[in-house]
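REQUEST ID: PR-0412
SUBMITTED BY: lab tech R.K.
PRIORITY: routine
TASK: structure prediction, single protein chain
INPUT:
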Amino acid sequence: MTAQAHHPVTAEHRARLDLAARRPFEWHHSLRFICGFPATRDEQIVDGDHLIKAWRLADHSLVTRIGPDNVGSLQVDVEATGEVTDAVREAVADRLRFYLSLDDDLAAFDRAARQDPDFAPIAARMHGYHQVKFPTPVENLVWSILAQRSPIPVAREVKLRLMRHLNPPVEAFGSVLQPFPSLDQLAGLEQAELTEVLRNERKARYLYGTIQGLTRLDEDFLRHGDVAAVEQALLALPGIGPWSSVFVLIRGLGRMEYLPDDAELLRAARTAYGPQVTTEDLPVLAAPYAPLQGYWAHYLRAGQ
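STATUS: complete
OUTPUT:
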């Protein structure tokens, strides 16, 4: 079994990055969403208008402190356990840009929202919000399996146990935080070891198969490949069905061409558009927002 380290390691190497965001962009919306997102609750610290979060990137454990600069973009301070090389800086910048959807162009979405009187107040309240994804698609897939048939607090505890199993916490910026493991670290676990950590043989079997399958998929393909082909690749992973695949497409990969089909979206749509809305009405209401109808659904759910 992988040795568990309970004592934090100290981040002694530092760097600073500047990340531009496509306008409109309002950082406070991102912070608000992160504070309320159940799957990652208590895994980061919000200090005023700064977000402090641990990562496992480029074989480094590191912590980022993200906050607004003076021109509407973001400034990122990095404290790492190893040298912050150019490769590490590039990995951090790429991951944060993707996690925070900094490059999303919302101009067409905003125009459509202004023509939708029932949705316009929600869009106005959330103006400048770029979807905060799961930190990585791997973490989204792991969560999808851990949360199956489990209350969210139980799934969070199992997730934290897995995180602690593979990495010690990191001390940085006056805080101690736990990074989520990298795909390479997860892929090094045998199924029996996962069973012992998760204490659930079925979920360990699904998770082991999904992790091994992910090692054969390139993240660039998942982010940018033909969306139907990406969906089929996700559906081929053990334990990932139609609902989970769309969940990961939107929340882990930012593939906003897709529209989730669940009771929570229907409830949110009825709040905005009226109690007469049915499941069959959802694609019709979302159609003006294509190919960003996933944003419409996300705003509906997150903005009420």
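NOTES: The chain has 15 helices and eight strands.
REVIEWED BY: pending
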